[in-house]
Write a structure and sequence with these properties.
The chain is mostly beta strands and 112 residues long. The chain is built from no helices and 8 strands. The protein has an 8-stranded antiparallel beta barrel with strand order 1-2-3-4-5-6-7-8. β3 and β4 form a beta hairpin.
């Protein structure tokens, strides 16, 4: 459900360099100049941060950036059942809840 190419906006999906796109597979989130590798994660149905209910994924990722330094981050992905082409990403706070003020919205790239 979360796997595939995503962009900041639909027009970003056509960018041949992919600067504003990322790809999610079973083990990682791959950005233009960095990757996040999944350490642990769980996909489940539940109450969404923005209201409603849908498919959620909570996971802990280890980042590999240009400097090759590693750092862990907890992230939640949400896809509403009403629109599977919209993805919301949130960092998870110390209380285990998504930080709503840091929401990032992306759209599924349907053709590349």
């Amino acid at each position: 459900m979360f796997h595939g190419n995503w962009g900041s906006a639909a027009e970003d999906c056509a960018d041949e360099y992919g600067v504003n796109t990322f790809f999610i597979d079973a083990e990682s989130v791959n950005y233009y100049e960095s990757n996040d590798y999944l350490l642990i994660g769980v996909e489940f149905m539940g109450a969404m941060t923005g209201g409603g209910s849908g498919s959620l994924f909570n996971g802990r990722f280890t980042s590999r950036m240009e400097t090759f330094l590693l750092g862990e981050s907890d992230i939640r992905f949400e896809i509403d059942d009403d629109n599977k082409n919209i993805l919301y990403r949130y960092p998870i706070g110390e209380d285990g809840e998504p930080i709503v003020s840091r929401q990032v919205r992306s759209v599924r790239c349907t053709s590349n």
